[in-house]
Inverse folding.
């Protein structure tokens, strides 16, 4: 029976129940909960230090109004990194390879930044649709182009995350299949291919973290324009 390479991206079912809900809720169980003690263990201390450093770096260009988003953006960053990293383990499912899930994150958050801009500073928010110094004949065309680019932003957020993770998983599966096929016939070539597979896996670990950071960074840039 031939198995499609894209079967790994189908949401697994158990007794007719999609297990994507478990894959989404599981990452929060893996992180230790800070205690009320004055002195914590090393793991919680390192975790708190990393979160504080990332929060400071992320919120640095924003004004005080944007700092209200710190908890949401940092939580989303940790959530995406954990899901992406767990998806690299064997016999696991990566929810962020589903465009519907990524769009479910991208559209509401992007829409929230737009609504905040329209409510707090409507003149500035609408001013982004028309660059300063635009010649009069080009004004209608540029307004249409900028409006389209504004509405494409959430689609670009979701598609970028989905495409990068999907491409990485497909490459890993293709090269792993090639290793098993070449091993009985050409062991030397199979070993070289396995080395490439190992290096690609390390690259995918970096991609899993970078794509989560890029997702949150772009949301921060959209927020920066509207606060």
């Amino acid at each position: 029976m031939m198995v499609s390479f894209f079967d790994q991206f189908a949401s697994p079912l158990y007794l007719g129940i999609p297990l994507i809900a478990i894959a989404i809720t599981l990452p929060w169980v893996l992180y230790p909960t800070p205690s009320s003690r004055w002195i914590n263990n090393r793991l919680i201390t390192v975790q708190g230090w990393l979160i504080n450093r990332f929060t400071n770096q992320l919120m640095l260009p924003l004004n005080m109004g944007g700092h209200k988003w710190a908890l949401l953006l940092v939580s989303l960053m940790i959530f995406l990194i954990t899901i992406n990293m767990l998806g690299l383990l064997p016999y696991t499912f990566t929810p962020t390879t589903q465009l519907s899930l990524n769009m479910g994150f991208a559209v509401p958050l992007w829409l929230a930044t737009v609504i905040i801009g329209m409510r707090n500073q409507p003149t500035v928010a609408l001013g982004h649709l028309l660059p300063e110094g635009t010649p009069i004949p080009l004004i209608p065309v540029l307004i249409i182009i900028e409006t389209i680019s504004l509405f494409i932003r959430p689609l670009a957020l979701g598609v970028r995350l989905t495409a990068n993770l999907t491409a990485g998983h497909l490459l890993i599966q293709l090269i792993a299949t090639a290793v098993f096929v070449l091993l009985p016939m050409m062991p030397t070539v199979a070993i070289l291919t396995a080395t490439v597979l190992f290096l690609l896996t390390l690259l995918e670990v970096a991609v899993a973290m970078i794509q989560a950071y890029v997702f949150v960074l772009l949301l921060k840039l959209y927020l920066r324009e509207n606060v």
Remarks:
- The CA atoms of residues 8 and 64 lie 43 Å apart.
- The chain has one domain: 1-30+61-226.
- Residues 1-30+61-226 form one domain.
- Strands lie at 13-14, 17-18.
